[in-house]
Amino acid sequence: MNSRLISIIRKEFIQILRDPRTLGIILVIPIVQLFLLGYSATSDVRNIPLAVFDQSQSPEARALLDAFRAADYFRIDYAVNSQEEIAVLIESGEARAGLIIPPDYANRLARGEAQVAFILDGSDPTSASTALSAAQLIGQAHATDILQEKIARSGMPFDLKPPVEVRTRVWYNPDLVSAYFMIPGVIGMILFAITSILTATAIVRERERGTIEQLIVTPIRSWELVIGKITPYALLAFLDTLEVLAIGHWWFGIPIRSPLSLILALSGLLLLSGLGIGLFASTIANTQQEAMLTVWMTLLPAIFLSGFFFPLEAMPKILQVVSYVVPLRYYLVIIRSLLLKGVGVAAIQGEVIALALFGIFIMGAAALRFRKRLD
Questions:
Q1: Angle between the 260-284 and 178-209 helix axes, to the nearest 10 degrees?
Q2: Which label site among 12, 30, 244, 320 has the fewest CB atoms less than 10 Å from its CB?
Q3: Which architecture does CATH list for 48-154?
Q4: Contact 206, 291 (CB under 8 A)
Q5: Residues 303, 325: Cα–Cα separation, whole Å
Q6: Per-residue pLDDT reduced to its tens digit, 85-110
């Protein structure tokens, strides 16, 4: 490494260290995002507020309510005296579901024809679909228990078993913890956002501060200036990677089943794309605000079309096709496979090749665009 390149890298590090806001963005913001998204961005549906209108007040009705209490999907918060009260609670958002038990529930249950009404707030389809499935499963399980008790009391030697038994096994995430899926995605989002945003201001900042003229009259070559500008941000991005991995592993319990060297090496491919996007934006913008807006035009579609929040399979076909040009899409598959499954490169070679090609293309376009001049 020649002295000119070392001088540029040293100069950039000095500027970063003298700017507490930049240091805050680099070191603190990833931790804040990790904790916020790690706890808030979850698909787990638990403790749904439930309002109950129990007109029966019988032991059989209490047994049904105990079945709902035993499952952690619902939390019986309200005991009401009319259906209108349930409607008011659901309309105000204080309750998300309502259970109505008729007065003759016990008698109908003895005849094998009991029915209860379950009302669900469908304004949030994701939570509502999970709650609906949970309520149906609770009802079916409770009905099976009642039927087994009846058969046992009758003294009939009959073993009640379903004709088909599905034995399930969950690999990689047996407890179905949402954080195991979200935290690796947060790693990719942070790396992509931090590198592109910070690099976007690298060249433009020199122009705004009036120091670009000093660089122009020096014997520094264009490629040396580019590498010198992005190297500090690349190193700091790797530091963020280690930081997020450590917190995700020790705080959230995310497993790391692949070698750390492989994780960092493949993360470098995403950094190449992020740095390239940020550098390209800095070469076509005249101010830091323009550079930031240019980057955000790519960040928002990348986050929503990468499969971070929503599964790609559920999107319209046209959006699925557009997602193929989003580098973050491939990295999320890579990082989740490395952390949760412990796979090797052979299992994800398609995503690795695609991400490498994107990185080379984007960085090449930024290098061709760059000119060591004012305009």
A1: 40
A2: 320
A3: 3-Layer(aba) Sandwich (3.40)
A4: no
A5: 12
A6: 998 898 888 888 999 999 988 888 88
